[in-house]
């Protein structure tokens, strides 16, 4: 790894702060342009809860993606790699535990916020309201299931159980909420529900995996030569899955029609706030595919030979674009 790469000269907290700042700015922009018009005759949700909920969802998504990436990283190391690079594996487990706790906390907060919004109780909503929301409303049941899955994930990582079981819990927690969202309410739920589940799993493996590879082994040439080729295979499949499922989901999300007429779809893309968000996601996917392809074609052979490469800068660009795209997707997942 090239220790003189510009991205490595910048302190990690600064880089993380920039990524967080840009993604939050993108989330705020997406919320503002898609906010519903006020209807005075209807008792609407308080602005605090209405605009705080997407931020809680964004933190939930980020924690879930990082949790998935942490166990993927341990799987990519393999048993021999975990023994050889035991310090790296230990750091991956610490990250997995920390984001597992954050995932549980953020999902519980989202659960409370959504229950408060739907009940109309606002900040005064009691715990019993959360229970009623989980029992009576599908989205509440999904959030409760996510909390259970995230808790199980954290416990399994703490107990150093085989990484396959934490991965299973992470993927269940990832798909629970999207599977009960807008994709399940179309006329072709048989197609859109599996598509959104595959979309979320692929994004999480791709983004989370790259984040952990960059943070943990970017400067360790030997470990990088082991992990990156394996991750590249996963990333290639993930990019293809994200692209295909994204196309399948775009039409029903914007037009409520699984096979919209091209002119109707074009109008929805160019003339509606939701369409602008979809275009933003497409632009992000294009940038990510280009940088990922460059890494695979030009840098990966050098990594296999344990030569110095400027991977950190490209990985930082990818993670930034990924974070912004996830922020846009979080706003797009709201009822619009």
List the helices and strands and how they pair.
Layout: H1 6-9, H2 12-33, H3 47-84, H4 86-119, H5 127-136, H6 138-158, H7 164-179, H8 189-217, H9 221-255, H10 262-271, H11 273-304, H12 311-332
Describe the fold and architecture.
Mean pLDDT is 83; it is low at 1-9 and 39-44. The chain folds into two domains: 1-33 and 183-336; 46-180, Four Helix Bundle (Hemerythrin (Met), subunit A). The protein has 336 residues and is mainly alpha-helical. It starts with 5 loop residues before the first helix and ends with a helix. It has twelve helices and no strands. Helices cover 81% and strands 0% of the residues. The protein has helices spanning 6-9, 12-33, 47-84, 86-119, 127-136, 138-158, 164-179, 189-217, 221-255, 262-271, 273-304, 311-332.
């Amino acid at each position: 790894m090239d220790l003189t790469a510009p991205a490595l000269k910048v302190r990690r907290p600064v880089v993380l702060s920039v990524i967080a700042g840009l993604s939050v700015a993108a989330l705020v922009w997406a919320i503002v342009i898609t906010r519903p018009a006020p209807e005075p005759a209807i008792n609407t949700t308080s602005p605090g809860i209405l605009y705080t909920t997407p931020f809680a969802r964004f933190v939930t998504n980020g924690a879930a993606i990082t949790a998935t990436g942490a166990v993927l990283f341990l799987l990519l190391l393999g048993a021999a790699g975990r023994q050889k690079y035991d310090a790296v594996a230990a750091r991956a487990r610490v990250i997995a535990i920390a984001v597992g706790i954050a995932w549980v906390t953020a999902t519980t907060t989202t659960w409370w916020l959504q229950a408060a919004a739907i009940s109309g109780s606002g900040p005064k909503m009691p715990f019993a309201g959360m229970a009623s929301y989980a029992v009576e409303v599908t989205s509440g049941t999904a959030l409760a299931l996510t909390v259970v899955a995230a808790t199980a994930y954290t416990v399994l990582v703490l107990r150093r159980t085989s990484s396959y079981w934490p991965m299973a819990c992470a993927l269940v927690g990832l798909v629970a909420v999207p599977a009960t969202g807008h994709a399940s309410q179309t006329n072709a739920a048989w197609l859109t529900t599996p598509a959104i589940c595959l979309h979320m799993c692929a994004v999480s493996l791709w983004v989370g995996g790259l984040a952990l590879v960059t943070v943990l082994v970017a400067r360790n040439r030997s470990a990088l030569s082991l992990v990156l080729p394996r991750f590249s295979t996963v990333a290639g499949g993930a990019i293809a899955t994200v692209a295909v499922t994204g196309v399948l989901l775009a039409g029903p999300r914007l037009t409520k029609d699984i096979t919209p007429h091209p002119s109707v779809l074009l109008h929805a893309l160019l003339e509606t706030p939701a369409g602008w968000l979809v275009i933003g996601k497409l632009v992000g996917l294009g940038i990510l595919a280009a940088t990922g392809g460059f890494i695979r074609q030009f840098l990966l052979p050098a990594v296999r030979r344990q030569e110095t490469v400027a991977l950190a800068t490209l990985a930082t660009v990818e993670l930034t674009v990924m974070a912004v795209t996830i922020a846009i997707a979080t706003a797009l997942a709201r009822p619009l």
